[in-house]
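Re: your question from the hallway

Yes, I did run it. Sequences:
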Amino acid sequence: MSDVVKEDVVDAAVDEAHSGDIAGALADAHDDGHGEAHHSSLGLSNTKLAMWLFLGSECLLFGGLITTYMLYRNAHSADVGPDQLWDIPFTSASSFVLLMSSLTMVMAVSAANRKDDRNTKSWLIVTALLGSLFLAGQVYEFTTFYREGLGYTDSLFASSFYTLTGFHGVHVSVGIVMLLATMAMIAKNKISGDKAETVEMVGLYWHFVDVVWIIIFTLVYLIPA
Amino acid sequence: MSARTDVANHEGTRERAARATTSLKTVTTRTQGARLAKVGGVVVLTGLIAGCAKNAPQDTFQPRGTNAERINDLALPVFYIAGVVGVIVLGVIAWTVMRYRDRGQPIPVQTHGKPALEIALTILPALILIGVAIPTVGTVMALNDTDDTECVVNVTGQQWWWEFDYPVQDGCMPGGITEPIVTSGQMAIPVDTNVLIRGTSRDVIHSFWIPRLNGKRDMVPGRVHNLRMQANEPGLYAGQCAEFCGLSHANMRMEVAALTQDGFNRWAANQLEAYESPVEGTVAADGESAFVTNCSSCHQVNGLEAADGNPIISRPDVGVYPGAAPNLTNLMTRTDFAGASWSLLREECRKEVWEAEPDQFTDRYLEGVTDDCFNEVDLREWLRNAPAKKPMYADPTKLAETGGLYRGMPYLALSEDQIDLLLAYLLERK
Amino acid sequence: MAIIERPATESPASAETDDMVTATSSYGYLRRPVETTGWRSWAFTVDHKKIGIMYGVVAMFFFVVGGIEAGLIRLQLAGPEGTILSADKYNQMFTMHATTMVFLFVMPMAAAFANYFIPLQIGARDVAFPRLNALSLWLFVAGGLFLNSSWILGGGADGGWFMYAPNSDTPFSPSNGVDFWALGLQITGIASLVGAINLIVTVLNMRAPGMSLMKMPIFTWMAMITQFLLLFAMPVITVALFLLMFQRSFGATFFSVEEGADPLLWQHLFWIFGHPEVYIIVLPAFGIVSEVLPVFSKKPLFGYPFVVFSGAAIGFVGWGVWAHHMFASGLGPVSVAVFSVATMAIAVPTGVKIINWTLTMWGGKLQFTTAMLFAVGLIVQFTIGGLSGVTHAVAPSDTQQTDTYYIVAHFHYVIFGGGVLGLFSGIYYWWPKVFGKKLNESWGKWNFWLMIIGMNLTFGPMHIIGLQGQPRRMYVWTEARAGEGFFNLGMWNLVATIGTFVLGIGILLFFVNALVIHRSQPVAPLDPWDARSLEWLTTSPPKAHNFDRTPTVHALDEVFYRKYEDVGKGDEHDYVQRASLEDLMLEEERHADAHIHLPAPSYWPMVLAVSLPIMAYGVIYTSWLIALGGAIAIAAMFGWALEPADAEDSDFDPPAPGEQTSKELANV
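Structure:
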C-alpha cells in the first residue's frame, strides 16, 4: 500500500484540471437551476436515494405495527371479531382501486418522462382520485365497524387493527396531498428541479403505500386468524 | 406441634447457638482466607470481586443451592478468562504506549495492516467465545428443567410485596400439603428439596431474586414463569425485587427461609392451625375488634369471625389496586413486614436469626416473634402512618387514574390507643 | 451564511450594504433570510458547519443537565437510607438522566461531529439536504426542551429510560411525565431519522472525485453505519412510542394485561431499537478514535478494511442480540441460548477494533496530546466494559447480574468509556479546525486525568456493588443488606459518589478550558497535528463553501500523501515532507472553483420544528393546540416546498461584467 506514495500524488492532485462539474458538490434537493448535472457517486439522484432510504425505514414502521396486530388479532370478544366484521368483497374492491392507482401513477411517471405536462397532470389527478376513493372506502369501513360495535378501545384487536390501518390511511392521505401538490406545482411551473424526477419520487412513495396495503390486506383480511 | 411449644424448647437452644456462633467465626475466616488466596490475583486485577466473610447477604458469589452453584460454576471461569484476557490486552496496550512514544524516531512505515495477523487475531477470540458458549447453552437448558420438582410454591408480586401460596399438593412434605397456605414476605421451603416457583404478578413486572439460591426471573402479569429454587442448608436467604416496579421498588424485599424437613413440617402445621381468639378481657381481645374495624377489610386473618359468627373475608380488591393485601393470620411467624423491609425482631434477635448456624437455624426461626424480641417501634410507626414510612400511592385525592384504589396501605388515622390494641392483637398472630 | 456572490474586486456599494441585504423574491409568505451576521445567521442557517456547532453546544448543555441529575442520584446513594431525594423524585431523576444522556447528549454530540465533518471529510460543500439538516437540529432542540419542560409541569417521566409496560401506564405513572417522555422522544426521533437519511445520501452520493468507499475516512464510515442503524432503529421505537401514547392518551389497551395484552411486546420493540442504539452511541466515537490514533501515531489505521467490516458486522449482528436485555424476562430456554451465543458473537468484531487500534499504535511515533490521551483512554476503558459484557453474555450468569449495579458499571464503561471519551477526543482533536485555535493542552490533560480517575472511581466500585447484590433503580439502600467486610456496600457506594464529583470537576475543567482559557489561546496553524484526512485541506475554520476547489482523492489519508513523499528505495522507507498544508492551501486557492452557489438560509426548518412541540403539548393538555401546531406545520411545509433550496439568481449580487474565475463569497 505504501507504494501509493510513489505516485507523486501531490503534484498529480495539484495539477489536475478542475473545471465544470462543481455544482454537484453543492447539490441539494433542488438543483440550483444552472442546468449542470449533479455529481453523484452512485449515479442515483440524491432525492431518489433519500426516498429509498425513507421507504426502507418505513418498512420497519409497518413491520412493528403489523407485528402488533398479528400478536393481538385474536384478542376480541366472540361477537365482534373479523368473522362478523370483514366484508371481503368490499375491501377487495377498494384494494383493487388502490392497485389501479399504482397503474395510473406509472402512466403519470411515463408522461412526465416524455415531458408531457398535460398528461402528467391528468394522470396525477386520476391517481389522487383513486387514492381518495380508497380512503373513502376505508372511512366507510371504519364507520361500519364502529356501528357494529368495534370502538377503538374496545379490544386489543380493535386498537391494533385501527392503529395499523389508520397509519396506512394517513400514509395514503399524505400521498394524495403530495400528488395534488405536485400537480399544482407543475401547473404553476413552480418545480425548480427535474419535473420527471419529482413525479417519479412521488410515484415511489405511492407504490410503496400500495405494496404495504397488499401485505396488510393479505395478513389482516385474507388469512384467517 | 404448636409454635408455643417451640418457644418453650428454645431457651436452651439460643445459648447453644450463641456459643456456636463464636466458633463459627474462626472457621469462616479461615476458609474465606483460603478462598481469597485462590481467587486473589485475577479478582483484584479485574476489579470483579468474589467471596468474603460477612459479605452482603445478596452476594452473588456465595451460592447455597444447586441452581446458584450451577450458575457460579459457569460464571467464575468466565470471570477468570475475562480477567486473563483483560490483563493481556491492557498489558499490550501499556507496553505499546511506553515503547513507541515519540522519542524523535523517524516517521514509521505507512503500513496498512497484515491480513494474516488480522485473521488470526479474529479467530482467537472467536475460539475462546465458542469455548464459553457451549457450557452456557448446557446450563441454560439445565436451569429450565422442571422434571425434578418436589414442591411447588406460587409466587405473586404486587406493589410492593410478595405473596407466597402453597397449593394443595403431594409434595413439599410427607403427606403433602392438605390445605392451601398463604403467606407473604418470607417464603419457607424445606432444604434439599427441588422447589419450583410458579410466579406471576398482579400489576406491573417484578423480578424474583434470591441471589444465593438462583438467578432472577421476571414475574410478568398475565404470564406464569417458572423458577427453580433449592437450598443446601437451613438459613435465611435475602432477596430483592430486581425489576423496577415503581415508587417503592427499593422497599420490595423478600427472603427464603430454608428449614429442615422436620422444621418445615412444623411450620406448615402451625400455619394451618385453627384460629384462637384472644382471651376475653385481655388487651389483645380489644385489639381483635380494633382489627376487625380498621384492618380486616383488606387483611385476611383466617378463622376470624364477626359477632354474628360468620367468617370475615377480606375484600382487598375493593380498596387496593392489585386486589391483594398480605395475609396476617401468622404474621409473627415471619421476622419482618411491609415487603420484608422492616424487622419484627429487635436488632439483637434479628442478628441471632440471620447468623444462626445451619443446624440451629430452623428452631430459632420457628420461635417466631416472641414478646422479648418484638420490635414494636417500626410496626408502631407503620400503623401510625404507613405511607410516611414507605412511599406508596396513598393520597386519597390522587387516585383518579386507579378508580379510587390505593396502591399500598393508606394512612388510617389510628389513635395511639388503637395502635396499642392492634399491636397486642398482632403479637398473638403466630 | 453566504449566499451572495460578488467579484473579488468589490464595488464600494456592495461592501456598505453588507448588513442590509434582502432577498428580492418572496416565496409563499416570507422573504428568504439573508443575514450573514448576528443570531439570524445562526437560527436560519443551513450551513452544515454552523448546524454542527449548534448541535454540539446544545448537546453539551444537556450533558450538564444529565450530569447534575447523575450527581443528585449519587448524593442520594452515598449513604444508607438517603434523604436528598424522595422516591418519586429519585425515579424521575434516573429516568431523565439516562434519557438525557442517551438522546440529548451522546446522540446529538455524535450528530454534531457527523454534521460538521462528514462533508469536509468527503470533500463536499454541504450535506445533501441542507434545509432538512437544519430541520433535524431544530427538532432535536425542540424535542429536548419539550422533554425537559416536564420538570416544571408536574415532574419528569418516572418509569426508567426503558419505560417497561405496564409500569408506564397511567394507573402506575399518573403524572404527565411519561407523556412528555413519549412525545419528546418522538420529536427527537424524527430529527434522527431525517438526519440519518440526509447523511447517508451525503456519504453515498457526494464524495469527492476519486474517493471510493474504501478510501473514505474511517470516521465517515463509522458515522454512516451509525446512520443506517438509526434509519432502521428509529421506526421501531416510533411504533412503541405511538402504542404507548395511544394507550395513555386515547385509552387503547396495548399493554393492559387485563385485556389480554402481553407486556413483553413493549420489551421486544424497545430493545430491537435499544440494542442497535448502543452501537449508535459508540460507533461514532470508534470512528473518532480511529482518526485520532493514526494521526498521533504517524501511521495509517492498522487494517482499515477490517475496521470497516467489523463496524459493518457490529451494525449487522447488533440487530440479532436485543433479547440479551431480556434474559430474566422469561423467554424460553431456546431463545435465551440463541441470543446468548449471538451476543458472544458480537464480541468478536468489537475485539477486532481493539486489536486494530493497538496495532495502529504498535511501531508508531506516539504523541500524547490530549486528544490522543482520550483515544487511548477509550481503548482501555472500553476493553474493561467489553470484558464485563462477555461475563453477562453468558445468560445464566446474567440472571445474577442483570438489573444490578454490575450492569450499570458495565454500560458506563461502554458508553462513557467507549462513547464519551471518544467524543472528548474528537473535541480536542478537531477544535482547532472548527475554531481556529487549539484548546489549552495542559488544561486538557488535567481534564483528561480527572475524568479518567473520576470515571473509574465512580463506575469501578459499581462492579462490586452489583456483584454484592445491590439492584439498580433503588432510591435507597439499607444497612441491613450492606454486608461488612472489604466489599461492604456502604464504603463502595460512598467511593462511587466521591468519584462522581471527581468526574464532575474533570468535566468542569473542560468547560473552563473551552469557554475561558480558550480566549487567550494563540491562533493555531492550519495543520496543528500533522493530520491525514481531507477536512484539513481547507482553512480553519473552514470557509462557508468548505473547499476552494473540490479535491480529487487518490488515497486513503489523502492529505498525508500530499504532504509527504516516500523517497526510500525498495523496501526502505523514508518519508520526506514535500509540502506544508499552507503550501497546499495556496495551491487550492490558486485553482479556486468559479461560481459557487451555496444553499440559502431558510425560516421553514425552524418553523416546522416549533410546530411539533406545540402539537405535543396539545396531545397532553388540550386539543386546540394540536390544531394550531398542525396549521403551523402545514404552513411551514407549504412555504418549504415553494422555496427553492438555492437562492434565485436575483438574490445574488450581479456578477461583475467579464468576471471569470476569481470570485469570493460574502463575509460569513
